[in-house]
Amino acid sequence: MTADLQAIRWARPRLSILNQLLLPHRREYVEIATSEQAHHAIASMQTRGAPAIAIVAALGLAAEVSAMAFDSDDVARAHIRARLEYLQTARPTAVNLFEAAARLARVVDAAATGVAQAYVDAAEQMLADDVRDNEAIGRLGCEHLRALPGDKLLTHCNTGALATAGHGTALGIVRDMWRAGQLAHVFFTETRPYNQGARLTAFELVSEGIAATLVCDSAVSALLARDPSIKAVVVGADRVAANGDTANKIGTYQLAIAARFHGRAFVVAAPSTSIDLALDSGAGITIEERPQDEITAAAGFTASSVAAPGAELLRERLQIAPTGTHAWNPSFDVTPAALISAIVTEKGVFVKRPDAQVFDLRASLAA
Ligand SMILES: CSC[C@@H](O)[C@@H](O)C(=O)COP(=O)(O)O
């Protein structure tokens, strides 16, 4: 991964994040020294992507805790537990944030002494673990996809280095296939309305020189009908239920329908921290709804705003729909397991039993 793409920088006890609101026009890092700042960075989408959200929350609190002197381990434990509760209110859909908070709460509960230090060590470890897991996903995804006919892929949203601690999930597979000479071309959607594809995936693909073409979300069926060499659609996940139903960026569901109609594989790539075994199906997943003006107006930069200091320039928006237009803006949708061919995790590639419509991820992860 080039330094340009490093979304999360941690040099104990300092955390800074690449402000993704400014990409692809400007590369600016923001220092995160407190849990309030981490919460703001996540809620305002300075940082986004399921694994990155969890890690920024964990390390933001690690930075805060490192600068504090606690009277006792009990005081440290109570502080950390309260801040973990608070951080979980930043965004509702990606389970990684909740999984990380629960795991870190267990760490501080288990530490009889040195609670603050135990917390910082565990939060720091998440960064290394996520890169290692993504590399395993890339390797396993390459092996899985090698057998399928065709030499092109289609992906959605941004699932790369910017959405994780590094390398990426679905985009990590794209990276590895490209490096291995297994991939001739990747198509990627703009991912309306927030344009994670057009702004962020494009930034990653261009900076690494991967042969790629941006398409409108609405061009996908036409693309699949026209190009039989697209072997699979590969996407990330924000929360995968035990039966394999997968919440991911809005538009994922219709890609899965299009892939099924055109006889292409539809592959979900995610770390096991994105799997929520507490949920039997996707019906229980909370879907974040975002402001209407993300649809009724376009975010962007004018020549002068690109040069202006500060992130507030991002509030500059170009109105598209008439004032008074009502818009519905769910940030995620749930793709039924029946439409998913395989789920690639760092622990293995999971498929359905022959004739089953759903996965049994409880059994797969226990094996
Ligand atoms: C490895 S990131 C996987 C998903 O988190 C990604 O596809 C996605 O939906 C991100 O949504 P975002 O709203 O940008 O946080």
UniProtKB/TrEMBL annotation:
Quickly give the catalysed reaction: 5-(methylsulfanyl)-alpha-D-ribose 1-phosphate = 5-(methylsulfanyl)-D-ribulose 1-phosphate
Q: Name one Pfam family in it.
A: IF-2B
- State the taxonomy lineage: Eukaryota, Fungi, Fungi incertae sedis, Zoopagomycota, Kickxellomycotina
Listed name of the protein:
Methylthioribose-1-phosphate isomerase
| Keywords from the named record | Amino-acid biosynthesis, Cytoplasm, Isomerase, Methionine biosynthesis, Nucleus
Q: Where is the active site?
A: 238 (proton donor)
User: What are the protein's GO molecular function terms?
Assistant: S-methyl-5-thioribose-1-phosphate isomerase activity
Instruction: Family membership, please give it.
Output: Belongs to the eIF-2B alpha/beta/delta subunits family. MtnA subfamily.
**Pathway(s) where this gene product acts:** Amino-acid biosynthesis; L-methionine biosynthesis via salvage pathway; L-methionine from S-methyl-5-thio-alpha-D-ribose 1-phosphate: step 1/6
InterPro entries in the record: IF-2B-related, IF-M1Pi, IF_2B-like_C, Initiation_fac_2B_a/b/d, M1Pi_N, NagB/RpiA_transferase-like
Main location group = cytoplasm
Q: Which organism is it from?
A: Coemansia javaensis
